[in-house]
Structures are given as structure tokens and as C-alpha cells.
Amino acid sequence: MATPASNVEVESNIEVQAVCYVYPNDEQETERLDIMHKLTEVTLGGKLNLAPIPEKPKRILDIGTGDRYPDAEILGNDLSPIQPKWVPPNVRFEVDDVEQDWAYHQPFDFIHCRMMGNGIRDWPKLNRQCFENTKPGGWVEFIDLDLNWTSPDGSLKEEHASKRFNNEFIKASRDTNIEPCPGLYLEGWMKDAGFQGVQAEKFVWPVGTWPKDKHLKEVGAWNYLQIMEGLEGFTYALFTRHLGYSKAEVEVICANIRKEMKDPKMHAMFHLHVAYGQKPEAATTAS
Fold first, then answer.
1. What distances in angstroms separate CA 35 from CA 25, 30, 91, one per listed residue?
2. What angle do CA 147, 95, 100 make, to 5 degrees?
3. Pairing of strands 269-278, 134-150
4. Are 228 and 35 in contact (CB under 8 A)?
């Protein structure tokens, strides 16, 4: 199941995981992920999860999120070794590929999977493995994006560089068997896997501080920051490997996007989705 931690390639001075993950794997990306953590926390009103899990869960599998349960045994899973050097004593990390067959010996009270879009090829299998490795009565939560950029007032048009980029990014991802908008399907995948009482919520992620609403303005500020921090990193691998763009062409695309996103009349946005459900009490766990 394990994937070698050294399995990376360098793409235009940006480290990219050389498995199926097309985002960078370097210090700048780690910083962007810290911004994403804050962005998600602000979006959810200071929470890390929405599932009504017990106050003191005993065992948690954490796929791409954070720790706020000091009494629980928390296992963090990632494809590469980018974890902090200092972690709480109840947390340990493993470098593994969650798409391979799981071999955990004990089930979990809570499995939390966040922002795994563009890293998962078989979402139904991931949902099944989560179901099989959750205790009866335990909870699983997925948090992910619908990366289709829109605008509430038509200010983002098909001819804009940002929208052309967005359309090409989504198509190229799907051409490589990666679903870039998994948020749309989280609820259905969870129900198909057998979870009961599945709840789904949808949140607006503005790009920039254009909303009048104070909360959305803060969300938009953090979202703008993470996009500007990671724009080239999102683009290089997918656009050069799969769409045939040159490095210079990618740089022009990114420059045009930055210019458009600085325009206060541009009201771009996309959506964050959260889905959570419970394993039935009568269900069995994986042996």
C-alpha cells in the first residue's frame, strides 16, 4: 500500500508528486495548504468538521485535515512526507496512498477526508473503504470542491482568461481520470457506500473581497490568497504534460488570470461542499 516518499518530479522548479497528484509538493504548496486550512475553518464558522461526532472520539483517521481532539488516537494519512516536525502526542502520520487497499486492524470512530480532489481516481472505492473501516455508529465526513468557476452577476464570461483556464483545467483533469469537482457527488457516493442519514451542505467561495456580506468577504480574501499563492503550481503539470502548453504560455495564462482577479468588477466564485453520514449500528466492519 505504501508509496515511496521520494517519488517526486520537478516541474519548472516546482516539485510535483509523480503518481497521479498534479499539484506541487514543495514548501510553497505547504504554505498554501495552511491557508486552505484557515479558509475552510473560516467557512465553517471555526469548525473543522460538521458531523455530530461524540465529544471524545477514541480513534480518528485524518485524510488531509487537522487535529482538535486531544483525547483521541489520530492517524494522519498523506501521499508524501510534508507533515510538521512537531505534532501532539496523540497524533501520528503515515505516508501512504489511500487509493490502495487498506489494512487497518482496528476500525475508526470518525474518518475525515478533506480536499482530495485531483488526487483520487476511484471515489466510490474510497467511500467503500471508509465504510468498511468505520465502527458501527461511527461517522465519515468528506469536504471538497466544485471547481467550476461562476459569477452571480455574469461578470465572469466565457471569453475571460480565468474561465478559459478553468474550463481547460476541468477537461484535462477528467481526461486523466481525475474528477476535479468531487463536491457535487459526495452525497451520492456516501449513500451508495451504505452510509445512513447523509447530510450535504454547500458554501460559496468568492475569489476576492467583492461580496458585501462580512463573512463572505473574509472567506473571499483567504480564497484569493490561496489561489494567488498556488496558481502556477495548479497549472504547470496539467497544462504542460497533458495539454501541450509551454512554460512561457503557462506564465502568460497565469499573468492574465492575476490581472482579471484584481479587477473589483470581477465577481468570480466557486463552491465548497461538505457531506457526512453514519455507519448503521447493525453494520459490520472490515476484518
1. 15, 9, 21
2. 70
3. antiparallel
4. no
111: left (phi over 0), alpha (psi -120 to 50) or beta: beta
- 232: which 3 cell numbers? 502556477
C-alpha cell at 156: 465572469
How far apart, in whole angstroms, are the C-alpha atoms of residue 81 and residue 145?
24
Say what the pTM is. Answer: 0.84
> What grid cell was written down for 250?
503557462
Element containing residue 123 per DSSP (H, E): helix 123-132
Could you write out the DSSP letters of every residue in 21-69?
A: --SB-SHHHHHHHHHHHHHHHHHTTT-S--S---SS-SEEEEES-----
Give per-residue pLDDT as tens, 42-87. Answer: 999 999 899 999 888 889 888 865 555 555 555 655 544 444 554 5
CA-to-CA dists, residue 239 to 146, 167, 169, 172, 284, angstroms: 20, 12, 8, 8, 44
| Phi, psi torsion values for 139, nearest 5 degrees | -120, 150
